[in-house]
Amino acid sequence: MTGFLTGLLRLKRGPWEMLATILIALGVVMLMQPFFLWAYTWSFLVTLVGTVMFIITSHFPE
Amino acid sequence: MANPIDIAARGTPPTLARKVRGLSDRAIAWIFVAPTIFLLLAINIFPLIWTIRLSFTNYAANKPNAEVKWVGLRNYERILTDEDIWSNMTTTAHFLIWTIFFQVLIGFTLAWLINRKFKGNDILTTLIVLPMMLSPAVVGNFWTFLYQPQIGVVNYIVEFFTGIPAASFSMLGPGGLAPWSIVIVDTWMWTPFVMLICLAGLRSIPDYIYEAAEVDRASKWRQFWTITVPMVLPFLMLAVLFRGIENFKMFDMVNLLTGGGPGSETLLTSIDLKREAFEKWRTGYSSAYAIILFVTVFGLASIYVKALNKVKER
Question: Which residue of chain A comes nearest to B292, CA vs CA?
Fold first, then answer.
């Protein structure tokens, strides 16, 4: 966990891509789950942030 | 004897040869690449940017002379608070999850069986692959007949095995069977595709790996989990990526089978999107809808390609 946080602070690709991946996956689950309307409402924003983050962070150094 | 290249060079008009000789390698490369880039921009990038722009307006394509108003995020807000669209998303998720699950399970099993050497292997492979060669329109139409409660063979098969009277239920009618009916048809049609990809994966595993495992007295079960599955995994993931993207956009086959009904039981997002765009003519609204679906597929495909690359690196 400390390594992950250090990686985020040092703008390393691995941890940031991991964070973006988690956001995208979370957004898709929120979009397609049948339980909470509020989760559906915020799903697009979460997916969009994750996707943009993924595109940007894939250019970070290893 | 004269070199054929020299002969061809001599045949080039002198003015053209002089012009081409004056260009750098980089310029020549750009000349070759430019048409492709132009087509990509014209066919993919420009419509995407235009759709994003339209998604912030109230534009209606059937009223070209009407005033187009900038509505900001209102289209997105309406879509993301609409319970009907939310329900369509869950219907799409049901379709997506179960079709991929069954296609991977059956496709891999078939590939594993077909990979063994036996008489009639080639003919059997051809027969299994037939459904995916058919047009989705044809498949939609003939499965509609197969699912008919009175004359359809599916109901009689169910009656034969379960004793439930054939005329007492409808696979495409109300009663909760319609979402499963479209899953069955898609699985029937596209399992051969997954099977072919898995077969390519299985045939790429060299025999000497299994021979080495035999020498080490590894059981068949262990060989399967430590050799077959890891080596076929990249192929399997590729199949899931293709089918996931395709099924997220599924329109033609389901539209012909059920038209989204009964009620909205099989109303996938792509069918709903088409209705909004070309029946209700709410172009701005449907553009926002399309952008939401696009971002979702794009995000999923990005993480999936990353996972695929990691598996391939192992």
Answer: A44
Rounded Cα distance, B172 and B156, in Å = 15
For chain B, list the domains and their CATH numbers. 15-54 (no CATH), 82-313 (1.10.3720.10)
Which residue among A32, A48, A51 places its CB closest to the CB of B89?
A32
Give CB contacts under 8 A, 24+ apart, made by A27-35.
A27/B296, A27/B299, A28/B296, A28/B299, A28/B300, A31/B89, A31/B296, A32/B89, A32/B90, A32/B92, A32/B93, A33/B90, A33/B93, A34/B86, A34/B87, A34/B90
Residue ranges of alpha helices (H) inside B42-177 are 46-54, 74-79, 83-114, 121-133, 136-146, 153-162
Angle at B214 between CA B211 and CA B216, to 5 degrees: 115
Could you list the beta-strand ranges (E) of chain A: none
pTM summary value: 0.83
Angle among Cα B250, B253, B259 to the nearest 5 degrees reads 95
Please check whether residue B236 is in contact with residue B201, taking contact to mean a CB–CB distance below 8 angstroms. Answer: yes
Helix axes A13-32, B83-114, angle to 10 degrees: 110
Binary contact (A47, B295; C-beta < 8 A)? yes
Interface test with A, best of B296, B300, B310 (most A CBs within 10 A): B296
For every one of its 62 residues, what pLDDT tens digit does chain A have, with 9 covering 90 and above?
Answer: 777 777 777 777 888 888 999 999 999 999 999 999 999 999 999 999 999 999 998 888 77
